[in-house]
């Protein structure tokens, strides 16, 4: 049984990655229904929280059906991060997570996110202050290093464990790599299998199929896997991986009817949470993946991303279901 503090996550938990403009409550809802064991919010600016910025505060919205859930924060100032962690704790998540992995220039080049990998003493001090400030278990998500010359992930893990974090997720790329190239899980395995590491270690990067999940589980020995981009428009990946790990058999992928129903459910959550205009707009990034593999889908995608009325979008989704219901395409 993998535990983060007193939070029980099962034998080999599958985590939903915190993804900016993706991992909101509507998206988390469909991922939870399809097998995600632990989910994180989008990353939230510490400065935004302590200044009560509406966009940052809205990201604290969590719902009982999502539990267990972690709130992830980022920032470069230790005092701001301490206070942001305290504010986040008031929203009553199970976990407070620190983002030490975001590679985006406007974050990392200010010393937040992956930028703190260039200052390990500061990373350790910041983490220690957050752990002392909150009573919830604190976890961290990070990368291997800033670049290939600064990969010190084992030292990072030891430092963070020493100051009290309860789990560590490692993305198998450096900041310089961004999301390019192949994720390197060998350093993740080195951390997981080191005699001095006692907290759960989760691997992240390139897991996009049940077969790869099983291969990486066996090959690298991690306690669980965090899935990010592969879940966008395809929340079924969590249950598909679980079934494959348990039985060795692949589940049949969702047919067009199920894809339409989940897309409609996702859209409904999105409109309810954000309002019609914003909910419809922010849903648009998901349609391509929900209907990936359908031939001649482009005209419907165009309609979906141009339509601004909720009922009309639902009608288009129904039309997609009716048009392709007899399609034998493996999607």
How would you characterize the overall build of this protein?
The structure is a single chain. Helix content is 44%, strand content 13%. With 331 residues, the protein is an alpha/beta fold. It folds into two domains: 3-247, TIM Barrel (Alpha-Beta Barrel), CATH 3.20.20.70; 256-323, Non-ribosomal Peptide Synthetase Peptidyl Carrier Protein, Chain A (Orthogonal Bundle), CATH 1.10.1200.80. The strands form two sheets. The chain has an eight-stranded parallel β-barrel with strand order 3-4-6-7-8-9-10-11, surrounded by five helices. A two-stranded antiparallel ribbon has the order 1-2. Helix 8 (186-192) links the parallel strand 9 (167-171) and strand 10. Helix 1 (25-33) runs antiparallel to helix 11 (256-274), helix 4 (78-90) packs parallel to helix 6 (120-133) and helix 11 (256-274) runs antiparallel to helix 14. The model has no long low-confidence stretch (mean pLDDT 94).
């Amino acid at each position: 049984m993998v535990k983060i503090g007193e939070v029980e996550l099962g034998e080999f938990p599958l985590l939903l990655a915190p993804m900016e403009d993706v991992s909101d409550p509507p998206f988390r809802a469909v991922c939870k229904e399809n097998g995600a064991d632990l989910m994180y919010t989008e990353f939230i600016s510490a400065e935004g929280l302590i200044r009560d910025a509406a966009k940052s505060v809205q990201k604290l919205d969590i719902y009982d059906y999502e539990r267990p859930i972690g709130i992830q924060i980022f920032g470069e100032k230790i005092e701001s991060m301490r206070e942001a962690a305290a504010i986040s704790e008031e929203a009553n998540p199970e976990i407070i997570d620190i983002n030490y992995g975001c590679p985006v220039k406007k974050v990392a080049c200010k010393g937040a996110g992956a930028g703190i990998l260039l200052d390990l003493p500061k990373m350790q001090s910041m983490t220690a202050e957050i752990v002392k400030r909150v009573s919830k278990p604190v976890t961290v998500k990070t990368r291997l290093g800033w670049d290939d010359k600064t990969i010190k992930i084992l030292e990072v893990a030891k430092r963070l464990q020493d100051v009290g974090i309860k789990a560590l997720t490692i993305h198998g790329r450096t900041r310089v790599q961004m999301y390019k190239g192949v994720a390197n899980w060998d350093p993740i395995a080195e951390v997981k299998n080191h005699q001095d590491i006692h907290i759960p270690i989760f691997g992240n990067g390139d897991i996009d199929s049940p077969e790869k999940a099983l291969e990486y589980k066996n090959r690298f020995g991690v306690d669980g896997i965090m899935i990010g981009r592969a879940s966008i428009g395809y929340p079924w990946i969590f249950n598909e991986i679980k079934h494959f790990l348990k039985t060795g058999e692949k589940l049949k992928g969702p047919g067009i009817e199920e894809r339409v129903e989940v897309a409609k459910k996702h859209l409904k959550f999105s409109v309810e949470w954000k309002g019609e205009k914003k909910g419809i707009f922010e849903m648009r990034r998901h349609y391509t993946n929900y209907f990936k593999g359908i031939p001649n889908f482009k005209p419907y995608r165009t309609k979906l991303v141009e339509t601004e009325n909720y009922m009309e979008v639902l009608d288009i989704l129904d039309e997609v279901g009716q048009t392709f219901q007899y399609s034998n395409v493996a999607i």
